[in-house]
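Give me structure tokens for this 323-residue protein.
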Amino acid sequence: HNESHGAGLISAMARFGRGLPAAMLPISLYAVTQAGHDILLGAVAAGFGQVVVLAPPDRADELPALEGQIALANAFLEGLGHGEEARIRLIAEQDPDLAEAALYELPKLKAVRASAFTPAGGKREIARAILTKLNEASRGGVDVLELPQGAPYGRVNIDIKGCTLCMACVSACPADALSDNPERPELRFTESACVQCGLCRATCPESVIALEPRFDFSPEALSPRILNEAEPFECVSCGKPFGSRAAIDRVTKELEGKHWMFQNAEQARLIKMCDDCRVQALSELGDDPFSKGTRPKVRTTEDYLAAEEKARASGKSVDDFLD
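Here you go.
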């Protein structure tokens, strides 16, 4: 509960009502609406049978985010076999009588086996440590837990046949869950870092990326794994590898004979060259698209006078003799 809201509410329950139920411990937070699923699940892993969040109803704009965190925490508990009933609940009341009645209507739930864990690292690392303890306390445990849409955990699935390894998704990923290999065309993915934001899916020009919300408890989720790899394409001029063969073949198919810069075979060959060789080849072709053409000849007064004499003698126009 918030100190500014919950303390007075609990005090009023104790003075004018029955007070808190037995075995219920009040814990004050600076802003209870900012409590994440890591804090809520940490209390369950530590041995609390239930967690009740007493939120101020006048913070209505902040409650949806809190409700989302509570729903995610309950989804984890249900998937791990600890959620025969919702262990984490939200009460947003200003009236102490209504809040007290809601507390006494809560079902009696057996606590999960208490486990000790070290809250070290960031929020995701702490959440993973807590979830690992909750998984160990469940019957049998699971390797992979399916989660509802919108969960901040999961993996990325790629249709390899359509992927050209353009690496647009790597540039867009804010969590560095997607990475490349500077030595060869290779797309890697670290599942524990993925927040399922969907930027990779929105950025992919081939539309071959799909998101799968889930939580992988295996150690492999902490290390990068290869999603797709391809044979590197070698420059047709110097032999230096650059890009993937699939990407170069696709660009060639789209541009050769269809774009004004790649109308003939010699121009299309530029697509298959590395940056250095392409610049050199463009200068040798002499058809630089940024060229302004040849400089016009400078004409003097003598040129115009001579052209006028020829025009009078032949009966033609002056422009016919200005070359």
